[in-house]
């Protein structure tokens, strides 16, 4: 499908970027049980820009589209994803050439590994365990932004009754991302009243030290 965003934008250095009004892509995670999340990646067709590398389903924004609308449309066109099965959590501008072009990564998740249907822009679509993303030859733009987009494990500590929430992306203080691995009960009067902020333990994987942060109750909505 062709829209009015199809075309090149040129930076002051003469480098061209696809999307007259910028571009957007969808980073969608889904649970892999105890193995943490998987990320849906696209193995780009050889004829495309940086063909043979791996990146996110995405493409040019049309003039009337928000970044989220463009990312969901492109994910449907390139991967057959049903947007009603995807929950958008955040937007991040991961490339910004002032007054010329930008790329927005829309961060989302689904309750399960969704079925995909590749179009001619893909050699393959694959749900890749998050820990293995960096092992693939990544599109340079995605490789540069991945450290800002990757998710750390998150355990929420809450007073009873415990909130009902499955594995999902959590937006962390400072703008990073976590992946909810569980909700544990606070004991000994440590809990706070319902509706108050939540305590969460972030990290502690791959030899990294865990830290404690505060999350709003809406983090589990």
Automatic annotation (TrEMBL):
Cofactor(s) needed for function: Mg(2+)
Domain Nudix hydrolase span(s) in chain numbering: 19-149
Keywords attached to this entry: Hydrolase
Gene Ontology molecular function terms on file: hydrolase activity
InterPro entries named among the record's database cross-references: NUDIX_hydrolase-like_dom_sf (IPR015797), NUDIX_hydrolase_CS (IPR020084), NUDIX_hydrolase_dom (IPR000086)
Coiled-coil region(s): none
Keyword Nuclease among UniProt keywords: no
Keyword Transport: no
Pfam families: NUDIX
Protein name: NTP pyrophosphohydrolase
Organism, as annotated: Rhodococcus rhodnii LMG 5362
